[in-house]
């Protein structure tokens, strides 16, 4: 079992990582002092896989609980579903002081965290991520949000979990596409912060895709540590340090919006966004063409898409204006000056953005 500390001015917490980590859930809950009434947000598939295991663990620990099922889709990341969670939470918690457990992937983590942040001005919640993408990224850092039709993550709050519990065993149930989606975020971490991790992925892509336990635990631990360090320096994205975590996300989110959140999942969209941002970095003279090609090669080895299908560039351009990194009419892109050397650059010209999108379209 590995433990990564997320050290903040207030509300520091632990990320517990390992095969069988879920067996420690009730024991860890008791150390937090957040009560004994858990409202578990999940979907039908995840409950079928892990519901009995978690229920047995909570019963042994004297934790009262109830499950709230939400649809298994990006559409669940909405104000409607958040309101539905809160209504159920209010009913469950009439005579209790409940806390939430987000059991699932990034969508469940985001909408559950958002609901926890606004119910009674904030109640405790725990992240139990079941996908690779959620374990390495969205479960850590306290960004909670829901989508609007005009774009991703437009309504949300910074609200930290009290605990993140990442059981590597959960990853064995993922589809190949879900594994690749998580690997996209791992590649992102390697590009912005860790050359050794980049080389590791380049050399071990086949083992990673086969869900080798050692490889998965190493990468989840390493990415959790990187994110914890960055969040610890810039919890609310006020200093510009945390912004580098959005490498590939400006175009990536635009791809998701332009394709109506149906054609490409988050990791696939970010992979193509990273290609576009790396191309801009190359054209700005920050990196060589050889490094740009190396990044594209690693993304290809991971089995991620290199090209869009049937998503007009004009829709991507329109959607990218909703990116939260815009300030007035000024855009900000996360670019790189080498592996492990991310920078934030303002005012990237529209012609260059269009040229970069042509690389993936």
Task: Describe the model.
Helix content is 47%, strand content 17%. It is of the alpha/beta class. The protein has two domains: 2-173, 3-Layer(aba) Sandwich (Rossmann fold); 184-222 and 233-358, Dehydroquinate synthase-like, alpha domain, CATH 1.20.1090. The strands form three sheets. Strands 1-2-9-6-5-3-4 form a seven-stranded mixed β-sheet, sandwiched between helices. It has a two-stranded antiparallel sheet with strand order 7-8. Helix 3 (79-92) packs across helix 4 (106-118) and helix 6 packs antiparallel against helix 7. The radius of gyration is 20 Å and the shape is globular. The mean pLDDT is 95.
Main attributes of the structure:
single chain; 361 residues; Rossmann fold; Dehydroquinate synthase-like, alpha domain; 2 domains; 7-stranded mixed β-sheet; globular
Any idea what the radius of gyration is? 20 Å
How many strand elements?
11
Tally of structural domains = 2
Provide the CATH topology of the largest domain. Rossmann fold
| Beta-strand proportion | 15-25%
Order of helices and strands: EEHEHEHEHEHEEEHHHHHHHEEH
Roughly what percent helix?
40-55%
Side-by-side strand order of the widest sheet = 1-2-9-6-5-3-4
User: For this structure, what is the CATH class of the largest domain?
Assistant: Alpha Beta
The 3D shape can be described as: globular
CATH architecture of the largest domain: 3-Layer(aba) Sandwich
Query: In DSSP terms, counting alpha (H) and pi (I) runs of 4 or more, how many helices?
Result: 13
Largest sheet: 7 strands, mixed
| Averaged pLDDT | 95
Instruction: State the separation between the terminal residues, measured CA to CA.
Output: 43 Å
Which structural class should the secondary elements be placed in? alpha/beta
The low-pLDDT segments are none
């Amino acid at each position: 079992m590995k433990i990564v500390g997320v050290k903040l001015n207030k509300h520091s917490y632990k990320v517990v990582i390992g095969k069988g980590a879920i067996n420690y859930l009730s024991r860890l809950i008791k150390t937090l002092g957040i009560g004994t009434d858990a409202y578990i947000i999940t979907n039908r598939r995840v409950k079928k896989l892990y519901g009995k295991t978690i229920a047995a663990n909570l019963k042994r620990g004297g934790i009262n609980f109830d499950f709230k099922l939400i649809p298994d889709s990006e559409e669940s990341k909405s104000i409607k579903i958040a309101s539905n969670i809160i209504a159920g939470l209010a009913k469950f918690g009439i005579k209790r002081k409940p806390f939430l457990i987000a059991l699932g992937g990034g969508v469940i983590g985001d909408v559950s965290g958002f609901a926890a942040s606004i119910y009674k001005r904030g109640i405790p919640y725990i992240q139990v991520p079941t996908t690779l993408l959620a374990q390495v990224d969205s479960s850590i850092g306290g960004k909670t949000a829901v989508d609007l039709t005009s774009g991703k993550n437009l309504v949300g709050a910074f609200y930290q979990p009290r605990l993140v519990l990442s059981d590597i065993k959960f990853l064995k149930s993922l589809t190949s596409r879900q594994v690749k989606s998580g690997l996209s975020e791992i590649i992102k971490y390697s590009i912005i912060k860790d050359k050794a991790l980049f080389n590791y992925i380049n050399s071990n892509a086949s083992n990673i895709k086969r869900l080798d336990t050692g490889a998965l635990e190493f990468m989840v631990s390493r990415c959790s540590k990187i994110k914890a360090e960055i969040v610890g320096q810039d919890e609310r994205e006020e200093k510009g340090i945390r912004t580098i975590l959005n490498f590939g996300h400006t175009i990536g989110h635009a791809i998701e919006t332009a394709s109506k959140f149906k054609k490409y999942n988050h990791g696939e969209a970010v992979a193509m966004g990273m290609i576009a941002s790396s191309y801009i970095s190359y054209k700005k003279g920050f990196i060589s063409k050889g490094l740009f090609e190396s990044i594209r090669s690693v993304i290809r080895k991971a089995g991620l898409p290199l090209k869009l299908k049937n998503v007009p560039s004009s829709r991507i351009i329109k959607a990218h204006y909703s990116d939260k990194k815009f300030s007035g009419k000024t855009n900000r892109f996360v670019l790189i000056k080498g592996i492990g050397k991310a920078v934030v650059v303002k005012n990237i010209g529209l012609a260059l953005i269009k040229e970069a999108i042509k690389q993936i379209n």
